[in-house]
Amino acid sequence: MITLNNNETWKSNSAYHISSIHLIGAAISDRATSKNYPFGIAIDNIVNNFYNLYNPQDNILQGLYVKTENENPLGLLDLHKDEPFPSNYTEHNVMSEISSFRKTSGIYKPFVDNPVSR
Fold first, then answer.
1. What residues contact 21, with CB distance under 8 A and at least 6 apart?
2. 18, 36, 39, 84: which could join 47 in a potential S-S bond, CB 3.0 to 4.6 Å?
3. Would residue 31 be called left, alpha or beta, if left means φ above 0 and alpha means ψ between -120 and 50 degrees?
4. Which residues constitute the domain of residue 50?
5. pLDDT (tens digit, 9 = 90+) per residue, 53-107?
6. Residue 67 and residue 42: Cα distance in Å, rounded?
7. Structural domains in the chain (count)
């Protein structure tokens, strides 16, 4: 998106546009989509509707991302509240709409139901 935002042909031709982008569980900084950063500026300039779908109980982002990146991920918390939002930016907490990883098969049981014996 940053590359497109820097491309004069893309920006000057009204036939080019991105209708919407939906990030689900984004493993990027919680400041990346701010209008203070290149990605946020690109969001504001070249996409009609941008959606951040986050889950404050995403155990992968809570564990791996926070420990390795030493910052909060956008998909866990939402855009950092001290940052300016792009004008076309919408956030939605999807915690109650997405099953936990162990339930994604539709079978609401732990992965290992029965111990293995001889």
1. 1, 43, 47, 49, 50, 51
2. 18
3. alpha
4. 19-97
5. 999 988 888 888 888 898 899 999 888 788 898 999 999 999 887 665 555 555 5
6. 28
7. 1
Residue 108 lies inside a defined structural domain of this protein: no
pTM equals 0.76
Q: How far apart are the first and last CA of the chain?
A: 56
Distance, CA of 67 to CA of 59 (rounded, Å): 12
Q: Is residue 45 part of a domain?
A: yes
State phi, psi for 44 to the nearest 5 degrees.
-60, -35
Tens of pLDDT, residue by residue over 22-64, are 999 999 999 999 999 999 999 999 899 999 999 998 888 888 8
Beta strands 89-93; 47-54: pairing state:
parallel
Q: Is residue 111 part of a domain?
A: no
